[in-house]
Write a structure and sequence with these properties.
By secondary structure, the protein is of the alpha+beta class. It has four domains: about 120 residues, no CATH class; about 100 residues, no CATH class; about 180 residues, Nucleotidyltransferase, domain 5 (2-Layer Sandwich); about 170 residues, Orthogonal Bundle (Endonuclease III, domain 1), CATH 1.10.340.70. It contains 22 helices and 17 strands.
Length: about 600
C-alpha cells in the first residue's frame, strides 16, 4: 500500500539513501519517491490518502466511500453487511474505488462464498481460521481467531515453556500472551490479573522462583486454559434488516478482588423473536493500599461505583460505533450505587461525587435499574472463572433469561431507599450552616481614592495624637509632613490592612513564627518584622533596602492594594502591566498582582482612550 503513494517532489530529497552492491563499487545516492515503511509519517499519509479517496468517491461509490473512514486499520479491512446481495455490491464498489488509486485488495474471505463470486482466486484467502492478533506471527498467544466456515470466534491456548521455573517475570510474560480485546473470555483472565497483583504485594524479585503454592496455582491456571480450545462464540450478535428494535444493556458488579462490566445487545425482530448476545466486557483489579501515594483499599460500594464508571466508558465507546435510537439500560446489584446515581453529585463526598457526575453525564440518555445478584452476569467477571466453568454459563454469553422476553418480567426496583441505608455508607457530604460575619474594611480606606492623600491624612492624624499628649508638650510637630512621618503613616496603614486580611497569619507568626499549611500566603514564606508581615525569600544578605529584600504583603481584595497600584500607575505615566508589577514589588507584594494590575489599566480612562 505504501509503495502506491507518491511523495511530493520537494519532499523526496528527505528520503535519500546511500547504496552500493559491494565495497568496491562507488556509493550511489537514491531518492525514494513513494511513502516508505518505517518513517514516522508513513501511517498518517497512508490513512489520509484513504480518507481523501473516500471523499472523492462519495458521489460515484456512495456505499464504498463509507468503508475507508470506519472499517480500515492501516491496510486491513474488516466490515460486514446484512445480505448477500448487499455484500456483492459492496465488494464491487470497494474494489473499483480502491483500484482507481492503485490499492488492490487481496486475501479476501467471507462467511458466505456467494459474496466472493466475482473475486479472482489469486486475490482470495482460503484459510479456515484467521488470527485477529497480528502479533501472533512471532509469538503464540491466547489469540481471538475467526472461523469463516462457522462464522464464530474461537480461542487458542498459548504454548507454554514448561521447563522454565515460575518467576514473576515468567508470569508477566505469560499474561501478556492473553489477547482478548472484546473481553469475551474476560472472566478467565481476571484470576491472572489478581494473581499478578498478589505478587506485587509480596514484593517478589523478578527472577526469584516463587513459593511452591504460587507455582502450583500458575501451573493449574495454565492447564485450565487448554479448555478454551473448545470455546466458540458466534460472531453475529443480531442486528439485521428485519430487526425492528436494538437496545444496549449494561451490567456492572464488584468483589473484593476485582470489578468489571459487560455490555449486551438485545434485538427484537419482526416475528416477535428476541435475542440478546454479549458484545464486550472489561475488568479491573481492585486497588491496594499504597502508603506512598496515600491511597487505601476501597470499600465494596466504592468498587461498585468504579464498575459503573467502567460500564459508562464502555457504553460511550460502543455508542459512537453502533448508533441506536432505543434508550439504553444499565443494571447494578448495589442499592447504594443506585442511590448515588439518583441524586445530585454535590450531595456526596469528593470520590463519589466526581464519579457520579461523570457517569450521569455519559449515561444521561438511559436509566439505571437494580438487578438481583444471582441474575447479574457481571458477577462472573468480578470474581473470575475457569474456562471449563465458563462454557456452561449461558447467562454470560446470552444474558439473563428475562432479557429474551418482553419487559413485564424484568426486575423493577427503582425506589429510593436512601433512608434505609446507613449514612456512613452513603458518604454524604456534611452541610454546616453558620452565620457569616463579614467585617468591612476600616472606614479610613474609603476617605480618599488617592494613596498619597490617604497617607498624608494618616500622618496628620498621627501628628495630632502626638501633639495632644502631655508628655510631648515640649516636642510638638508642625509644618509640612516630613518623610519620616510619611513612612510611619505608610507602615501604620499597611499594618492595619494586614490585621484585617491576615488575622490568623498574625496569630500564627506571633506564636510559632510560621503560618499554617492552609494559609493563602504559605508560598511566600512570610515572616513578621516589626509588626509587619513581609515576604521571606532568600535575599536576607543582599545589599539592598529592607523593602526590596522583604516586601510588605497585601491582600489583592483589600482597598489598599487598589490604591497602591493606581498610585504607581499614575506615577509611572500610565505604565503597562509588566512595568507596574515590577515597580510595585520593590516595596509591596499584593497577592494576585497581575490580575489586579490588569484591572487598574483597563479601568484607566486615559489608557482606554489611547
Amino acid at each position: 500500500m505504501y509503495r502506491m503513494i507518491n511523495v511530493a517532489p520537494d519532499d523526496q530529497k528527505l528520503q535519500r539513501i546511500l547504496w552500493r552492491e559491494s565495497e568496491q563499487d562507488p556509493i550511489r545516492t537514491f531518492e525514494l519517491t513513494t511513502v516508505t515503511y518505517g518513517t514516522s509519517a508513513a501511517p498518517y499519509l497512508a490513512t489520509r490518502c484513504l480518507q481523501k479517496l473516500a471523499e472523492d468517491g462519495e458521489k460515484t461509490h456512495p456505499s464504498a466511500a463509507k468503508i475507508p473512514r470506519k472499517a480500515f486499520y492501516v491496510d486491513d479491512l474488516i466490515t460486514g453487511v446484512a445480505s448477500v446481495q448487499e455484500g456483492k455490491r459492496l465488494v464491487k464498489e470497494i474494489n473499483e474505488l480502491l483500484d482507481s488509486a492503485g490499492f488492490t485488495l487481496r486475501k479476501w474471505n467471507s462467511n458466505s462464498d456467494q459474496v466472493l463470486t466475482n473475486i479472482p482466486k489469486h486475490l482470495r484467502d482460503d484459510r479456515d481460521v484467521f488470527e485477529l492478533d497480528s502479533s501472533t506471527s512471532t509469538v503464540k498467544t491466547l489469540g481471538l481467531v475467526w472461523e469463516p466456515r462457522t462464522d464464530c470466534f474461537r480461542f487458542g491456548a498459548p504454548k507454554w515453556n514448561i521447563a522454565d521455573p515460575i518467576t514473576k517475570r515468567v508470569i508477566l510474560s505469560d499474561a501478556s500472551k492473553l489477547f482478548d480485546p472484546l473481553g469475551l473470555a474476560g472472566p478467565v483472565i481476571v484470576p491472572a490479573k489478581v494473581f499478578i497483583q498478589t505478587l506485587w504485594k509480596l514484593k517478589c524479585q523478578w527472577d526469584d522462583p516463587l513459593p511452591e503454592e504460587f507455582q502450583l496455582f500458575w501451573h493449574e491456571y495454565r492447564q485450565n486454559l487448554i479448555a478454551l480450545d473448545s470455546l466458540s462464540v458466534p460472531r453475529w450478535v443480531g442486528p439485521s434488516s428485519d430487526c425492528i428494535s436494538v437496545q444496549l444493556h449494561g451490567f456492572c458488579d464488584a468483589s473484593e478482588r476485582a470489578y468489571g462490566a459487560c455490555l449486551y445487545i438485545r434485538c427484537t425482530f419482526s416475528d416477535d423473536s428476541i435475542t440478546a448476545r454479549l458484545l464486550m466486557s472489561k475488568s479491573r483489579v481492585a486497588p491496594i493500599d499504597n502508603p506512598k501515594k496515600k491511597t487505601r483499599k476501597q470499600s465494596i460500594p466504592r468498587l461498585e461505583l468504579s464498575s459503573a464508571l467502567v460500564l459508562s466508558h464502555m457504553f460511550e465507546k460502543v455508542r459512537s460505533n453502533l448508533p441506536t435510537t432505543e434508550k439504553p439500560f444499565f443494571w447494578t446489584d448495589s442499592k447504594i450505587v443506585q442511590c448515588w446515581l439518583a441524586s445530585s453529585p454535590s450531595r456526596w463526598l469528593v470520590f463519589v461525587g466526581n464519579r457520579v457526575s461523570e457517569i450521569q453525564h455519559i449515561t444521561k440518555e438511559g436509566c439505571w435499574n437494580h438487578v438481583p445478584r444471582t441474575e447479574n452476569p457481571a458477577d462472573i467477571i468480578s470474581r473470575g472463572m475457569t474456562p471449563a466453568q465458563l462454557q456452561y454459563q449461558s447467562i454470560w454469553f446470552d444474558a439473563p433469561l428475562w432479557l429474551h422476553q418482553d419487559t413485564s418480567p424484568w426486575p423493577n426496583d427503582r425506589n429510593d431507599n436512601s433512608e434505609q441505608i446507613d449514612s456512613a455508607a452513603l458518604e454524604e457530604r456534611s452541610i454546616i450552616s453558620l452565620p457569616a460575619a463579614v467585617q468591612p474594611p476600616n472606614e479610613i480606606f474609603s476617605l480618599y481614592s488617592s494613596f498619597p492623600k490617604l497617607v498624608r491624612m494618616v500622618a496628620l492624624i498621627r501628628r495630632f495624637r502626638h501633639n495632644a499628649q502631655a508628655i510631648n508638650r515640649n516636642s510638638r510637630k508642625d509644618g509640612l509632613v516630613s518623610s519620616e512621618e510619611y513612612e510611619q503613616a505608610v507602615t501604620h496603614i499597611v499594618r492595619l490592612s494586614q490585621h484585617e486580611s491576615f488575622r490568623q497569619e498574625f496569630l500564627d507568626l506571633s506564636r510559632t513564627g510560621e503560618v499554617r499549611d492552609s494559609s493563602k500566603i504559605l508560598s511566600l514564606r512570610p515572616r513578621l518584622i516589626d509588626g509587619i508581615i513581609r515576604v521571606g525569600g532568600r535575599l536576607s544578605g543582599a545589599p539592598v533596602t529592607t523593602n526590596r529584600k522583604h516586601p510588605m504583603i497585601l491582600d489583592h481584595r483589600h482597598p489598599l492594594s487598589t490604591r497602591v497600584l493606581a498610585h504607581y500607575h499614575l506615577k509611572l505615566y500610565h505604565a503597562g502591566q509588566q512595568l507596574l508589577v515590577a515597580s510595585v514589588r520593590e516595596k509591596y507584594w499584593p497577592t494576585r498582582i497581575r490580575g489586579l494590575a490588569q484591572k487598574i489599566i483597563y479601568g484607566c480612562v486615559m489608557c482606554f482612550r489611547a
